[in-house]
Amino acid sequence: MPSELAAPATRALTTPVHLILDYLKQEGVRAVFGIPGGPITPVFDALYHDRSIRLVLTRHEAGAAFMAAGYARLTGRLGVCCLTTGPGTTNALTGIAAAKADSLPVLALSAQVATVAFGKGQLQDSTYDRCDVVEMLRPVTKLSAMLAHPRNASMLLRQMLRTALTGRRGPVHLNVPTDHMRARVPETLQWPMQYRAMSRPFDREAVKEAAARLLSSKRPAILAGHGVNLAEARAELLELAELLSIPVATTPKGKGAFPETHPLSLRVFGLASSPWSEAYLLSGQVDTLFVIGSSLHEISTQGWDERLQPREALLQLDVDPAVIGRNYPVTTALVGDAKASLRELVFQLRRLLASGEHPRPSRGAALAGLKARVPAVLSPETCGSDALPMKPQRLMRELDRALPEDAAVFVDSGNNTLWALHHLTARGGRTFAHNWGEFGAMGFAVAAAIGGKVAAPSRPVVAIVGDGSFGMAGMEVSTAASHGIGVVWVVLNDARFNAVHHGQQLQYDGRTMGTEFLRMDLAAVARGLGADGLTLTRPEEIGPALEAALASGRPTVLDVHIDADEVPPIHSRVESLERFFTSQA
User: Cβ(469)–Cβ(443) under 8 Å?
Assistant: First the structure.
């Protein structure tokens, strides 16, 4: 990209479709996900002539939206899904809502019937007096709008990109009537630096106040959320923690923000908490809690446990001021980018420490003592069990040993989430992505992993999913097979919606309803879709099978039969639900 702010060379006239593709290329988009349909075909024809953007043909529009989210998660850039009008767009709604919950920049580019046919009952009309997709997607996007005139294409697209990629990032929806797509319009192409801010803001005075409070704290803690990963602030978080010897827990969605092999790690707190994090954060002894990149929603607080409130000061850092203080009263609010704010905070702390007025704290011995008394996981003896059916705890131990250090792990919503969050280890290079936070879409990881692998083809990408989620989105294995995308799916096959099953048992005196189904032969399904499929029933098979699948580079489903009756670490969620049902939350 040139340093000067002159516009790139332009054609005299172009079409809105070509403008859209040119803008996407400038934003670093190298792949789009979608399914063709009559009104959207001008976009597909433009992709036919311009192969610099890869088209990944999916099996369902929800899968396309999930893949776009997975692409955005691993690149930090815009993910794009292309949708035809009517049901093509409504099918994608869940995936777009998942992207909003995870603050992922996704452009949902949808078609619309021709403007001359509005209100006449054309096939798949989704305008004002029908199924109005612009209005339908408005609550699940940062911006949803129709292109009203072809000459507004550049202006509106720049607004979409600016909205998706600045502040708290998120999805946007651009709806384009098919007769506008090939209209002749002047080309007005701008560089990204000309239409959206590329800054990392921080609040200097709030940083100074936070530094003073952390230095005066006797028993501080850090709770690191999803925002640390999104801001790529892991190195800054590590430096802060080591500088002041502060123990660090992560929220479930923040898993991976801090290495769980580090002596200061408390592992995950919230859904599927580690006993370490519970013993430290809920002890009533924490005087200063520094929350970074988390809105402190239900899943990250064990249903807003009052014991999480520190004795003296709660510091909360977030790029979105609307979430600060939403669920817990704060002492110091830091509005800004996590990476820039933490970098400035570390600089301020080093300056104060260098003055000699503040002794450098050391808390290693006390934390080591806690870890000697309390196990990192529940029932650790089960992790080595040779019992059959295979214990899910043992499965996770074998996966943890076999997963490469730089693996991108996509975790679906359900029983598998609980086991993976609790037992898998976040090492320095591993990325964890899941949607069980404020939304929790089943099928997310089945498809999002494909988008992740397209984004990072050289990284090992593994999806850990349940058979319930696989039943919802498993046809996307065909997408991976068709395009040679080497994702490995590890499916926990227990013939149940098992998180709900165990939740019902705990709440209703052992009664369950609507949670069980016939066991599926998912390895055979995978082979039928053109991928490799293996059925695994013994613990010693897991590691070699995963390593072989990753080495093959082929899409592979590992159909793992597990003990369905092992109760996952779901108790905090069940207790939250019970309070909700009695209006006590």
Answer: yes
The pair of structure tokens assigned to 303 is 């249903």
Residue of 216, 152, 159 lying closest to 185 (CA atoms): 152
Q: What tokens appear for 242 in the block?
A: 């080591």
Output phi, psi for 366, to 5 deg.
Answer: -65, -40
What does the alpha-carbon distance between residue 335 and residue 316 come to, in Å, rounded to a whole number? 8
> CATH 3.40.50.970: which residues of the chain?
13-195, 380-581
CA-CA distance, 246 to 295, in Å (whole number)?
21
Please answer whether residues 229 and 335 qualify as being in contact, where contact means their C-beta atoms are separated by less than 8 angstroms.
no
Cβ pair 181, 17 in contact under 8 A: yes
How remote is the C-alpha of 321 from its chain's centroid?
A: 20
Which fold does the domain 204-373 belong to in CATH?
A: Rossmann fold (3.40.50)
Q: Which residues contact 174 (CB under 8 A, 6 or more apart)?
A: 20, 107, 108, 109, 110, 145, 147, 156, 157, 160
CA-atom Rg of the chain in angstroms: 25
Q: Which residue has 């290329």 as its token pair?
A: 25
Q: Which 3 state secondary structure label does DSSP give 221? A: strand
Six-digit token string for 258: 């801090």
DSSP 85: S
**pTM recorded for the entire structure:** 0.94
CA separation (Å) from 67 to 96, 107, 168, 172?
Answer: 10, 12, 20, 15
Start-end of H helices in 374-497: 392-402, 415-423, 444-455, 467-473, 476-483
pLDDT digits (tens, 9 = 90+) for 278-325: 999 999 999 999 999 999 999 999 999 999 999 999 999 999 999 999
In CATH terms, is domain 380-581 a member of 3.40.50.970? yes
Q: Give backbone dihedrals phi and psi of 575, rounded to 5 degrees, phi first.
A: -65, -35
375: DSSP letter: -
Q: 51-100 pLDDT, tens per residue?
A: 999 999 999 999 999 999 999 999 999 999 999 999 999 999 999 999 99
